[in-house]
Amino acid sequence: MFKKIIIPVLVLGIFSLILVSYTQGQTKSYYSGDALVFQNKIYITTANTGSMELFVLNNKQIELLAKVRPFDERFGKYGDFYDSYLRQEEGHLYVYAVTNFSIYKYEFNNKQLILVDTIRNSYWEWYNRVGDIDGKLASFSANNVKIWNDNLQVVNEYEFSNSEIPYNVRGNDKYLVNVQNNHIYVYDRASRQIIKEIPINLKTSRSAHQVYIDSNNDLYIVDDYYAKKFSLDGKMLASFKHLDYEGYDMAASGYSQAVYFSNGIGVVKLNKNDFKLEDWVFTNGIAGLRGWAMGMDVVSLNGDKIVVFNNSNILVLDDQLNKIASIAATEEDESSYPTENMYLNLDKNRAAPNTEVYLNGGGFVPNESLEIDFAGTKTSLNADIRGRFTQSLFVPDLTADNYDIKVTGQSSGLHYSISFSIE
Q1: Does residue 376 register a pLDDT over 50?
Q2: Does residue 351 lie within any of the structural domains?
Q3: What burial letters (b/e) apply to 300-309, b meaning 16+ CB within 10 Å?
Q4: How far is residue 27 from each of residues 221, 266, 324, 336, 412, measured CA to CA in Å?
Q5: Three-state secondary structure call for residue 11
Q6: CB-based burial of residue 151 (10 Å sphere; 0-12 exposed, 13-18 middle, 19+ buried)?
Q7: CB under 8 Å to 123, separation ≥6 — which residues?
Q8: Most CB atoms within 10 A, among 69, 97, 115, 185?
Q9: Is residue 388 included in any domain, yes or no?
């Protein structure tokens, strides 16, 4: 990872075999995603498995909150999400996800993930990625970058793209950047032109790289030999020699003069100004599983928290690069997904204690074990082959008030609630 450490060629081969064994097996690989601090909690999302997955960091555990796939009603089968992105709007947490020609908008509210909007373009533009440009929602296709408002209306568009690695296109209020063909391309949003091409050193053109742009419009990137800092005109301002592994992402601290980068075998912390080494960690085995540090995001909550998409797991580190928590990737069962949006219905929404009521619902995994929690009284049952159920319940003998009836899928973690008034 550093120029003072020598790793034999044999070890490089071992790491390559580790990566191949994970990406070609049944277990899905985590290589990119997004993280956000919302109401003093760190939320993480990724769509690397084909499902949009939402996690939260609770103390020292990463918990899966939701896992959904797009269902195509025209063909009666599931598709794949390609990317997902977290966004806070007017005090609410939303997750955006893209697939084919569609953008999905979910709200995470009251411990539930609710689909609130979907748009599908009619001009056959394939969305590869969704993310952020200068605090605004952005979509990335093979043709362009589009900027959207909160109502999913396009407010700006730029003919700047990377058809092979859409992950590499980033930006701020003035510029867009792309890593392709061994260069950083800088695009001026005002003139709508590429204004600079900066050469870098990559062993392969088909690799993912995130360029960080600071408030001075200096560019930070890690290639396959050095972490580098450039001025906008291409002048090298600082560099740091790492172990010649493939560089991936670079991101900055929200608290201190530090930048972090990932290069497969681990994560390195540098001083932002002179690129002097401050700390480092190998991520293989740190989570109890083989790791390969690729995508990375840095958020600020009581110091830096570095979220690493570490191939076999998602890993969260503190600003001293100590492990806080991790969650392992699991095998995907392609046949076990809900076939419709979640819903609950009651034959009556208010009644006296000990009255029998009927609850039905759907949107769960076919044949999944379910738990109904009616104001503390729990009932177990199974969904049918369509992920639906019907169940009679007796109103608990409680003081007159409003209570929730919550249904939770025991394998998927999906849950939904409906309000009931006890008279």
Answers
A1: yes
A2: yes
A3: eeeebbbbbb
A4: 30, 21, 23, 15, 17
A5: helix
A6: exposed
A7: none
A8: 97
A9: yes
